[in-house]
Design brief:
single chain, alpha+beta, two-stranded antiparallel ribbon
Length: 60
């Protein structure tokens, strides 16, 4: 009963810095797509990785 990963995957929305620090990224809700953690730390808010991430249950 494995499902198609493209149908069950979720879009990556966190910026590179939030993904590296493992914190919640709110760039999709902020003006100019600059998240709160990047704004407060003074770093660039860059989104380089894109695509779908499949969940672990798809392959069981």
């Amino acid at each position: 009963m494995s499902k198609d990963p493209s149908a069950t995957g979720r879009r990556i929305q966190a910026c590179d810095e939030c993904r590296r620090r493992k914190v919640r990224c709110d760039s999709s809700n902020m003006p100019h797509n600059r998240c709160t953690p990047c704004t407060s730390s003074g770093t660039e808010c860059i989104h380089t990785k894109s695509g779908l991430v499949s969940c672990c249950r798809c392959f069981q």
